Amino acid sequence: MRLLVAHTNMVHETIADLSPAGVHAAHSTLIELAKAVAQSRFDDTEPLLAPSLAQAAKDLVDNHLADPELSPMMLARQLRVSVRTLQRAFATVGESVTTYIRHRRLEEARLALTAGPGRPSVSELAAHWQFADSSHFIRAFKKRYGQTPTEYARSTGPTGR
Fold first, then answer.
1. Which pLDDT tens digit goes with each residue over 87-135?
2. Over pLDDT 70: what percentage of the chain?
3. How far apart are CA 41 and CA 57, in angstroms?
4. Does residue 111 sit within a domain?
5. What residue stretches are annotated with the HTH araC/xylS-type domain (predicted)?
6. pLDDT per position as a tens digit, 3-59
7. Which residues, 6+ apart, have CB-to-CB distance to 141 below 8 Å?
8. Domain check: are 88 and 13 in the same one?
9. Contact 103, 65 (CB under 8 A)
10. Are residues 76 and 133 in the same domain?
11. Distance CA 107, CA 111 (A)
């Protein structure tokens, strides 16, 4: 059912940009998803369903971002597909499941660093967003944004703007 909702939302957001062939493909995929839901099965070899599966997984990630249990295995279990099927779906959109989770967590941590006074410490952010420790978080943050969390917070603070 999550796939059906994710596909419908994705089509709704992009319908104006679709060519007639794109509209037809979206329609066909919607029919296949509805059949799969009605028959309680999912054809993990159907390539048209991969973007919808990836989107459904992304929606789940966004809803469970701070959950320590969040993993490709948890997502696959929730979506009732194999981990490999989930990985293949993400590959069609050009990223890995683990990378998507890490990037989303880093993005939320980055936003928290701009919260101003009372913002969480680097250690608190690392713990909240499920990084092994502060050092791991700082390295990942610097790799993603080109500066440490502290440098970023200073550069976006009231005097750095």
1. 999 998 889 999 999 999 999 999 999 877 788 899 999 999 999 999 9
2. 77
3. 17
4. yes
5. 55-155
6. 666 667 767 777 787 677 666 677 777 777 677 666 665 555 555 678 888 888 999
7. 106, 109, 110, 147, 148, 149, 152
8. yes
9. no
10. no
11. 6
- Please enumerate in sequence order all residues whose Cβ is within 8 A of that of 61, keeping only pairs 6 or more positions apart, or say none: 70, 75, 100, 101, 104
**What local confidence, expressed as pLDDT, does residue 48 receive?**
63
Rounded (to 5) percent helix, strand, coil in the chain = 70, 0, 30
Query: Considering its fold, how many domains does the chain have in total?
Result: 2
Residue 120, burial from CB neighbour count under 10 angstroms (0-12, 13-18, 19+):
middle
Task: Determine the pLDDT at residue 151.
Answer: 94
Dihedral (CA of 109, 121, 128, 99) sign: positive
